[in-house]
Amino acid sequence: MRQPKIIAVLNRALATVYRSLPIFVEEVQPWSHPGDEKAAQLLQNLVADQKQYAAKIADLILDLNGCPDAGAYPIVYTDLHLLSLDYLLLEIAEQQKRDIAVLDDCLSAAQGDVRAAALLAEVLGNARGHLESLEQSQGQSAN
Prior knowledge:
The chain is mostly helical and about 140 residues long. It has helices at about 5-20, 20-30, 35-65, 85-110, 115-140.
C-alpha cells in the first residue's frame, strides 16, 4: 500500500481514538455522585487504553515518515460537558459503536500494510472489549 494512503488511514484511526468522547469526558470532568466509583473506573480504563493506542498509532505514522494529525474534538461534544457521568456512559457506549465502525473501515483499508493492519486489529479488538464492558455496566445499573 502506498504510504500516503496508509498514513491517511492511520490518521483517521488516530482521530477516532484520540479525539474520542471518553477522552473528552475525562478532560471536562463530568458531574458524579457517591456510588459512581465503578463507572469512573470504567471510564478511566477506557481512556488509558485509548491514549496508549493513540500513541502507538502516532508512532507508526512517524515511522512511515508521516505527520500525526488527531484533529479537534467533534463540535457536538461541547454540549455534553455539564452532564452526569452515568448519563455520559450511555452516550459513550453509543459513540463507541460508531467508533468501532470507523476503526473497522480503517482496518479494511489497511490490509495492504502488515504493521498497520496488525495494530488496527488490536485497537479494534480493544474497542470492542470496552463496548462489552460498557454494555454490561448498563445492564447492572438497570437491575
